[in-house]
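Hi there,

I know you've been waiting on this one. I reran it after we fixed the sequence typo, so this is the corrected version. Both the input and the resulting structure follow.
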Amino acid sequence: MKPTVPSLYHSLPRHDSTAPSAVTIGNFDGVHLGHQAILSDVLRAASQHGLLPTVMTFAPHPRAYFARKGQRPELIPTQICSLRDKVQLLSNQGMRQIVVQRFNQHLADMSAEDFISNLLVRGLNTRWLLVGEDFRYGHRRAGDINLLHRMGAVHGFTVQTLADVADAHGQRISSSALRTALAVGDLARSQELLGRSYRIGGHVIHGQKLGRNLGFPTLNMRVPAPCAARSGIYVVRVHGLGGVALPGVASLGVRPTVTNSGALLLETHILDRTVDAYGKLVCVEFLEFLRDEESFPDLMTLTAAIRQDAQGARDYFASHGL
């Protein structure tokens, strides 16, 4: 059965529906196992009560907005996934409505009561709401669970709270823990938290063609910035270029040997195969961290390092299979 394409909203109230909703609210960066538990509860409640399963998220991350406003870039949280990847992951979890609410000064100044009335009641016709026990909202984060319960009684929606979700070791599953794992290249831990391999999706863009000239053509992709994943060289699989995943080796970084632009790029070399992928939407699956990004004295040394990285990826696939 073909999955239902969700309705995506960038503003509320909805322009095409007044259907009642089962709603959860959060940033959902990465859509890890903790998030998946929340979304599963929403899906269950929506099915029981005849509601549309709905998630409201924010762009940019509220902490990123306030960090930029206060000129404190070091406080901007790194991004685990792009907005496109997040929407796809939320859709994969069965969400029928996805609200990407713009976080700006207007929303930051909105009172807690107006947040509930404008977004939840008029915006989504909320009938069932699931949030974390420490959920805060509205101007200066003045709104709490008690206010939600009081206004829910007035406007006809039920409020449920969810405690933290723990992993097999009893540790809390969180986006912060996932960012920590990715920052050190611990892909095994990130997989424990995500329930899947870490992936970055995006369209293949034109690059400087340097890799092709060196004998290692690459698929170039922009990545969310600041990116949560550690810069460096990875063994990867590439999805979206035919019916099977393709083995590769990828460099995530700023290419210090060839440019001083500082722009972060994901460059993926597919092993032993030439493909025309410009403009295509692909997904790069990270399997193993090989080494940190380095600056080399010349292109000859860079080429030798790439050749060694490619061999490292071949050795990985020879041992683990594709």
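Quick highlight: The domain at 197-320 is CATH 2.40.30.30 (Elongation Factor Tu (Ef-tu); domain 3).

Best,
R. S.
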